[in-house]
Design a protein that fits this description.
This protein is mainly alpha-helical. It has helices at about 10-40, 45-55, 60-70, 75-85, 105-130, 135-150, and strands at about 60, 90-95, 100-105. It is globular, with a radius of gyration of 19 Å.
Length: about 150
Amino acid sequence: MRSDTSPWLDDRQQRVWRQWLQSNARLTAALARQLSQDSGTSLADFEVLVHLSESPEGRVRIVQLADTLQWERSRLSHHLTRMEKRGLVERQGCTEDGRGAYAVLTDEGRVLIEQVAPGHARTVRDLFFGELTDDELAALDRFTAGLLARLDQR
């Protein structure tokens, strides 16, 4: 019998945790597959394009983008270089303070995100939200908000 101070998960917690991990991995793979099949775009490309397209000016400070994506700055820098070569983004210096740079959505990048976003949204809706009742969605909303709040405290 385990005590409440035991570091180990009980059987139910272990089962749910492993289901969570497997669900997350399989959902991520399915979303990546859909983007690749529909447009040759990677999930990483899509994430960058989404954040840039949702910015009012179509640009975000690279440091801020790395923090938002939870990526190392070097990973983002290398990824932006690959996206620049394909004409999806460009970098602009920061004239406000002379430090850092912006990642900027190009016209080609905007066309791509507008083309692939509807199919991605359909896949998310079908795979993630398709079977949820309103009550389950409300419970999931509370759960994820709480989880994010706990993670933000660390």
